[in-house]
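This section describes the prediction task in plain terms. A model, or a person checking by hand, is given the sequence of a single protein chain and must write out its three-dimensional structure as a string of C-alpha cells. No templates, partner chains or ligands are provided. The sample shown here is typical of the held-out split.
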Amino acid sequence: MAPNANVKAETKQLSAAIGAARKKTVNFALLISKNGLVFESDPRKTADSLRAAAKKKGGAKGAWGTMRCEGSKLLLTCNTTPPGNLEKLAKKHFSERGQSLKIEFHQQAMEQAQEESDSDALEADGTDELDDEKELSGADFGELLQKARKKPHNFVWLIGESDLVLKAHPRHGTDKLRQQAKADGGGTRGASGVLTINGKNIILTCDEEPPKSFARLAKTWLANAGHKYLVKVMTPEGEEWDNDESPDGEETISEPGQVDDALSKSQLSSDLKRLAVEFKTRAKGMPADVAKELKAALKSAAMMIAKGDLTGAKSAMVELEQSIGAATDESGGPSNDWKAELIKAFADVKPQLVALLEVVVPANKAALQELSKAFGAEIKAGGADQARAMLDALKSKMDEIVKMRAEGLQRRGVDLAAAKARMEAVQQRLDRLEAENPRN
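The expected answer:
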C-alpha cells in the first residue's frame, strides 16, 4: 500500500489483511518511507517478495516476516530486528485506518535461539538425538524415509497446481512447515500432522481431515518418484483411510496431472460451497451494494471452475474470502462469535424456561422442549440463521404461554369474585327471610 494512496482503499486492504490474519498466519512487509509506512500482506507471496514490493513503493528499513491476529492483538514475527520506532509508527498507521490493535513485534532469531536451546537441553539429558536435523522435502524423500523409520516427523503435504509439496521435520510445528510448503508452491488443501513409517506403509496421523482421495494421490506421487509405498491416513476421529486399491482390488496409478486436476476441481468446488455458506451467514450485516458484488463474485468463481480455469478460480476465491471477512469487519455485521452470542441469549431465558416447564400443561411443555432441542441442534450444525430463528420461536412460545397463564389467572380471579358476591347475596336473602319469619 503506497503511503499517498487513497486512504479509503488502504483501509479496505488493511481490513482484508487483518481478516486473513485472524484465520491463519500470513506473510507481511512493513517499511518506513518518507511519507509514512508502506504495508504489504499476501498469504500467497513470501515475506521477501512483499518486502521488495514495498521497497518499489518507497519503503526503506522496517520489518517483514509473518503475522497473525489473536483477538485485539496483532503478532508480527520478523525475520530481522525491527527499528525501535516502528511499533509506534505502526500503531498510528493502523489506528488511522480503523484498526485499533495492540501490536507486538517478535524476532524470528529469538525463536530459533530458543529452539537451539531446547535442542541443547535434549542432547544434554540424552532424551533425543538432534544431530543433522533439517527440514526435509519431497526432493529429500529417500533421506526422510530413513529418518522417519527411527522417529516420527511432523509433516505438511499440500496439493499444488501440478504437483504435491511435502515438508517434514521431527520438531518444527506444522505452522512453520505449512509456510515453507506454500512458499514452494503448495495450495490451501492437503494433509498435515505426524508421519511415521512401518515397513512399506507410510502412516499419516492427521490433525485435520484431508481430502478423501489424498492417500491415493500421495501414493501416485510417490510411485512416480520411484518410491512404492502404501499410504494410510488416520483422521482426527480415529478413522483409517486406505485408498490405495481400486474397487476390483487392482492397484491403479493415474497420471499426476489428471489426478491433480480432478482433485483440484473437486476441492475448489468444496471450498466455494464453504464460502457461499459463510457469505449467506454474514450477508445480513453487509451493505446491500457490497453483498451484491460478493454474490456476483461467487457466481463468477463458479463459472471459472466449470470452465476449467482453476488458477483463476483459486485466485478469485482467496480474494473473496478476504473480502467477505473485510465486509463484515467494516460493517460490524455477524462474526464468528454468533454461537457465543446465541448461547448467551439462550442462557438469559433459561431460568424462565425451567420455571415454565414445571407448571405448564403437557402439550405446551412438549412444544417448549422441542424448540429447545431444535435450537441446540442448529447450534451444533453451525446454522446461524436457523439457530436464531429457533431461539426467536422459543421466546415467542414462552411469551404466548405467559400471556395465556396471566389471562387465565385474571379470568379465574373475576370468576371467584363473582361467586363470592353471589354467595353473599344468597346469605343476605336467607338472613332477611329468617328475620321475617322467626322460629317459635
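For orientation: The chain has a mean pLDDT of 75.
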